Amino acid sequence: MDRPNHLSVVVDLSPSQWYLCGQPSNAHPLPLAAFLSQLLAFLNAHIACNDENTLSVYGALPGRSALLYSSASAELSELTDPADSNTYRQFKILDSTMMKSMSEQVDALSDLEEESPIGLVGSLTKSLCYINRVTNVSTSSTTTVGSDEPTIRPDPRILIISVSPDEAASYIPVMNSIFSAQKLKVTIDVCKIYGPESVFLQQAAHLTGGSYIFLDRPDALLQYLTMTFLPPPALRQLISVPTQDKVDFRAACFCHKNIVDIGFVCSVCLSIFCQPVPVCSTCRTKFPIKTLQRLNASKPALAPARSTAPVPSPSPANSLPRSQAIGLPRTTSMGNGISASPGRNGASTR
Ligand SMILES: [Zn+2]
Ligand SMILES: [Zn+2]
């Protein structure tokens, strides 16, 4: 508990989604101003938990991403900002820096930009780079001391606060970010405030051991944040943090960027396609014509499984275990077949 930990927050700042989220016609509307005050309270709580806790906040704006606050830059403004006897200095710097940089970024948006998809991937990768830097610095600084003390690494985690729907075109970069996070042992938590359930972010939380929460009451955001996302990952084995009861493992095809229920996976590079292809567009592997014919012939049988109806239909396609790739004979010198399987296997092993 006494170990310092690092939190990177990725805040979705899509103007159109926040406008919709704050509409009084919603059952529990959360306007942007109310969101910001609750978010700042949560961020203040994080830096108050341990005086060595570090924080960085990235804004995912339409078409780009920007650093809104970091503990490193706060140390600099600590030297210049006048003190206020009524406020804890760290809180004051955090609140004023966040609001200033956020309004600067939002003011800089042009009308055209406001419609483009948010820069979630950019914020996510920048957060990972920041974490990589923080953890490496702390490792080297503790080893140069030369004492026998164990190396103390800040317990890094990322919290994504999302209001926008999934951007199917960003499937591959999001998955690559997830794998980088796994490698860096970074936990990704997701707080979904508004909009449809996010397939990609569910997978991000599941694969990195984090929590994905879709808020039933967005207006009670602060309670969700403090009860679920304030405790560091090391503490979560002791307390009961809400977890996902179901995870949507669907992947997006590489050809049209559509989210598919059943995909065809290249047996060489594990690229996912929505239909059998003669040549893999990623690794240029050619597939035997017989395999293609067989897979095309089996497509109508697979079609009923595409429907997302909750009642399972007794079609022969359903009797086939979905995770099992169809084995293919190595008949030609190319010897590579496309196997039909859900995207999960292909995506998670890339
Ligand atoms: Zn496709
Ligand atoms: Zn391939």
From TrEMBL:
Extent of Polar residues compositional bias: 330-339
GO cellular component: transcription factor TFIIH core complex; transcription factor TFIIH holo complex
Annotated compartments: Nucleus
Listed InterPro entries: TFIIH_Tfb4/GTF2H3, vWFA_dom_sf
GO molecular function: zinc ion binding
Pfam families: Tfb4
Keywords annotated in UniProt: DNA damage, DNA repair, Metal-binding, Nucleus, Transcription, Transcription regulation, Zinc, Zinc-finger
Transmembrane segments: none
Chain positions covered by the region annotation Disordered: 303-350
Main location class: nucleus
GO biological process: nucleotide-excision repair; regulation of DNA-templated transcription
Domain of life: Eukaryota
Family per record: Belongs to the TFB4 family.
Subunit relationships: Component of the 7-subunit TFIIH core complex composed of XPB/SSL2, XPD/RAD3, SSL1, TFB1, TFB2, TFB4 and TFB5, which is active in NER. The core complex associates with the 3-subunit CTD-kinase module TFIIK composed of CCL1, KIN28 and TFB3 to form the 10-subunit holoenzyme (holo-TFIIH) active in transcription.
Function (record text): Component of the general transcription and DNA repair factor IIH (TFIIH) core complex, which is involved in general and transcription-coupled nucleotide excision repair (NER) of damaged DNA and, when complexed to TFIIK, in RNA transcription by RNA polymerase II. In NER, TFIIH acts by opening DNA around the lesion to allow the excision of the damaged oligonucleotide and its replacement by a new DNA fragment. In transcription, TFIIH has an essential role in transcription initiation.
Protein known as: General transcription and DNA repair factor IIH subunit TFB4
